[in-house]
Design goal:
The structure is a single chain. This protein has 447 residues and is an alpha+beta fold. The chain has two domains: 148 residues, Up-down Bundle (Four Helix Bundle (Hemerythrin (Met), subunit A)), CATH 1.20.120; 284 residues, paralog of FGE (formylglycine-generating enzyme) (Alpha-Beta Complex), CATH 3.90.1580.10. The chain contains nine helices and twelve strands. Strands 10-9-8-11 form a four-stranded mixed sheet. β6 and β7 form a beta hairpin. The protein binds N,N,N-trimethyl-histidine and fe (iii) ion. Pfam families: DinB_2, FGE-sulfatase.
């Protein structure tokens, strides 16, 4: 989102971002009872009550203690909510704050944080630094809200969340080219705090990248297209798979995206407590990097690199500028992208044509996080900020980059430069992908 520069506007902006995150946290935690909040719905996830107090503990550490210079409110619980001290699977056995206490703690921290935000102390510090901390914490809460929505999807039992379906598609994908040519050349990748005051450390610094000509899918890969891969025996043919992915699907008996099952010749899926036929025209959801990579190979294509994805999303060939979002510099509206948990599913392909990139690539933001072929690595000149554990400790070949944001990603935590990452086996996340291919090789001599 566009971050204003005057102190007063900045204060209002930070206030709105914090309030928006808290409204969503309440939505996700008020709809279930205490037993549900403290239960572990999957060993991949924390109990919801852990996320709830972790959000506020981070807020206390950064906004009350670091920015506000206030004394610690509850230093004794810091280690309980340290994500590095306790793997998710072990969190239910910790002496966590019970739901009522976690909520009281959250309210207490927030009250004092708003006091810090109002107070003169903010003025005395470099505005961008202090403002960044508020933006970072609002984004952190929204990221955990997406994590909690994943927990809801893994939770068994009747539906507790509801949202209207996205409107029908505007464009007919069959009338558009299936892929878009991205011309070879340099573009500016990443961003700076001058252009994007709330950019996280891994998005910085902006730097020039040369990207050779390539072609990229106009839309994310749909369920219908992915089903052809499944029905063609794609999960039984090692030719398509990275050997580590092949070993993993053999070991786990994987034969379709997570939450899919075949019944009477039809593919059904479970989505937030409801079982429904898999809709053909929706971007495929809940696939691992290995599944995305195997589909691409089967289709005679490959995943885009992270630089290719960002160039397809941000490069304006007329001005040579890199835009904040595919559609330009304006904050997202519902016409641009399916973001922010307004719907509990990706929008069908052909939705949100106003959100297309200058080169004509559709639905890059929102709907599904898109796997790229790239490892999560620092940009040249990277500096960890404000703490190594946000990005730096995850750099390396173990994690693959996802781009674009899902239907569950909040606008405040989503932009053309935003980088997400996960292990290549993970598929409980709201992940999909699109494919790419190399451009024509440059010809020597003549022409
Ligand atoms: C950026 C989504 C990979 O959830 O692990 C939350 C965000 N970092 N708390 C994650 C995050 C610290 C992170 N991802
Ligand atoms: Fe966190």
């Amino acid at each position: 989102m566009t971050v204003p520069t005057s102190a007063e506007a900045l204060r209002g902006h930070a206030y709105a971002a914090l309030a928006g995150a808290r409204a969503r946290t309440a939505l996700l935690t008020d709809c279930v009872d205490d037993a549900d909040l403290t239960a572990q719905h999957s060993p991949l996830m924390s109990p919801l009550v852990w996320d709830l107090a972790h959000i506020s503990n981070q807020e206390e550490q950064w906004l009350l203690r670091a920015v506000g210079g206030r004394p610690a409110l509850r230093p004794e619980i810091d280690s309980l909510y340290d994500a590095f001290a306790h793997p998710r699977a072990t969190r239910p056995s910790l002496p966590l704050l019970p739901p009522a206490e976690a909520r009281a703690y959250a309210a207490e921290v927030r009250g004092r944080v708003l006091d810090v935000l109002d107070s003169a102390r903010l003025e005395g510090r470099p505005l961008v630094d202090a403002a960044f901390a508020f933006g970072m914490i609002a984004q952190h809460e929204q990221q955990h809200d997406e994590t909690m929505l994943i927990t809801h999807q893994l939770r068994r039992g009747p539906a507790v969340l509801a949202a209207p379906d996205p409107p029908p598609p505007v464009e007919d994908p069959a009338l558009l080219p299936a892929e878009v040519r991205i011309p070879g050349g340099a573009f500016l990748m990443g961003t700076s705090h001058e252009d994007e005051p709330w950019a996280l450390d891994n998005e910085r610094p902006a730097h020039v990248r040369f990207v050779p000509e390539f072609f990229i899918d106009t839309f994310p890969v749909t369920n219908g297209a992915y089903r052809n891969f499944v029905d063609a025996g794609g999960y039984r043919d090692p030719r398509w798979w990275d050997p580590r992915g092949w070993a993993y699907i053999r070991e786990h008996g994987t034969e379709a995206p997570l939450f899919w099952r075949r019944e009477g010749g039809q593919w059904l899926r479970r989505r937030f407590g409801v079982v429904e036929p898999v809709p053909d025209d929706e971007p495929v959801l809940h696939v691992s990097w290995y599944e995305a990579d195997a589909y691409a190979r089967w289709a005679g294509r490959r995943l885009p690199t992270e630089a290719e994805w960002e160039k397809a999303a941000r490069h304006d060939p007329v001005t040579g500028r890199s835009l904040r979002h595919p559609w330009g510099d304006a904050d997202p509206t519902p016409d641009h992208a399916n973001l922010g948990q307004r719907h509990l599913r990706p929008a069908p392909v052909g939705s949100c044509p106003a959100g297309r990139s200058p080169l004509g690539v559709r639905q890059l933001m929102g709907d599904v996080w898109e796997w790229t072929s790239s490892d999560f690595l620092p940009y040249p000149g990277f500096v960890a900020f404000p703490y190594r554990e946000y990005s730096e400790v995850f750099f390396g070949p173990a994690h693959k980059v996802l781009r674009g944001g899902s239907f569950a990603a909040a606008p405040v935590a989503c932009r053309g430069t935003f980088r997400n990452w996960d292990l290549p086996v993970r598929r409980q996340i709201f992940s999909g992908f699109r494919t790419a291919r190399d451009g024509e090789p440059a010809h020597g001599g003549g022409a």
